[in-house]
């Protein structure tokens, strides 16, 4: 397992691209000043990974935030996702162009299939492979793909996805899926790492926060990284963005990692990838 060292640290994807293992998520950050500020504050604090999606309707603000921050484009690992209604071969290629236009960039570092839309995600993936071969995106991956979706995709895919971004937190570990991804060199990534705020009600986290002298959020985000899972907590508050990243001066013991693993109850706070209707 690669050492977790600092905010600019990376995990290496199977094509050799270095992906920062900690980033800013901007889901629900409003386009305009709110998301511009969040991105600027994150980059000023040392973040180098920003995760958006076309359905968030804030790509334009994300692009502005990056430009206004003064960070060089090549320093920022920029991620977006194709939305379900845009899936399919030609429509995915168009959606990618639309995202680049809004972000005002000429490539993405990672592009993800947002959800496994039945009957469409294989054609979507063919478009992803074209974008990757054309050098328009440095890495391609999926989001919300369970093992059977991945197995189905891998039957026809010429390029194995580099990333799978999943709902991941102590109540939804899905260790079997993590193991499957690891075996196929697919980097696991967490969304909703703080259980939409429910993490703050849990006694186990209050005790660990006290033990390590850290916040509950810092404990769970550190756990993500020690499990080899890329994580992108979302916030539009400056102090929270800075605090979330303050997780490189301590390490959870193996026993405490196991303790958190043991909280798993297969509970989702977001939609089920086998049963969504959007």
UniProtKB/TrEMBL annotation:
| Family annotation (SUPFAM superfamilies) | NAD(P)-linked oxidoreductase (SSF51430)
Task: List the GO molecular function terms.
Answer: oxidoreductase activity, acting on the CH-OH group of donors, NAD or NADP as acceptor
- Which parts form a coiled-coil structure per UniProt? none
Which organism is the protein's source? Answer: Flagellimonas lutaonensis
Q: Which controlled-vocabulary keywords does the entry list?
A: NADP, Oxidoreductase
By sequence similarity, the record places it as follows:
Belongs to the aldo/keto reductase family.
Q: What is the name of this protein?
A: Glyoxal reductase
Is NADP among this UniProt entry's keywords?
A: yes
Checking Pfam families in the record gives:
Aldo_ket_red (PF00248)
- Residues of the active site: 56 (proton donor)
Protein residues bound to substrate = 114
Question: Where along the sequence does the record put site: Lowers pKa of active site Tyr?
Answer: 81
Query: Is NADP one of the keywords?
Result: yes
- Domain named NADP-dependent oxidoreductase: which ranges? 32-264
* PANTHER family for this protein: 2,5-DIKETO-D-GLUCONIC ACID REDUCTASE, NADP-DEPENDENT OXIDOREDUCTASE DOMAIN-CONTAINING PROTEIN
């Amino acid at each position: 397992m690669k050492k977790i060292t600092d905010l600019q640290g990376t995990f290496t994807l199977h094509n050799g691209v270095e992906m920062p293992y900690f980033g800013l998520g901007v889901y629900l950050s409003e386009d305009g000043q709110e998301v511009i500020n969040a991105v600027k504050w994150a980059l000023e604090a040392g973040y180098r990974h920003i995760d958006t999606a076309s359905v968030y309707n804030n790509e334009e603000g994300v692009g502005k935030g990056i430009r206004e921050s003064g960070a060089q484009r090549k320093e920022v690992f920029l991620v977006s996702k194709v939305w379900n209604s845009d899936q399919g071969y030609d429509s995915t290629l168009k959606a990618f162009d639309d995202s680049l236009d809004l972000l005002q960039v000429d490539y993405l570092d990672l592009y993800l299939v947002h959800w496994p839309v039945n009957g469409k995600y294989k054609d979507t993936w063919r478009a992803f492979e074209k974008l990757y071969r054309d050098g328009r995106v440095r890495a391609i991956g999926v989001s919300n793909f369970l093992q059977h979706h991945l197995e189905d995709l891998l039957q026809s895919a010429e390029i194995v996805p580099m990333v799978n971004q999943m709902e991941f937190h102590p109540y939804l570990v899905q260790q079997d899926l993590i193991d499957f991804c690891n075996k196929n060199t697919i980097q696991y990534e967490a969304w909703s790492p703080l259980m939409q705020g429910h993490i703050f009600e849990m006694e186990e986290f209050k005790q660990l926060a006290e033990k390590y002298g850290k916040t509950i959020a810092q404990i769970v985000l550190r756990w993500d990284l020690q499990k080899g899972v890329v994580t992108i907590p979302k916030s539009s508050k400056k102090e929270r963005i800075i605090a979330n990243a303050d997780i490189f001066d301590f390490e959870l013991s193996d026993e405490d990692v196991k303790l958190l693993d043991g909280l798993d109850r297969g509970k989702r706070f977001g939609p089920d990838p086998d049963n969504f209707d959007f």
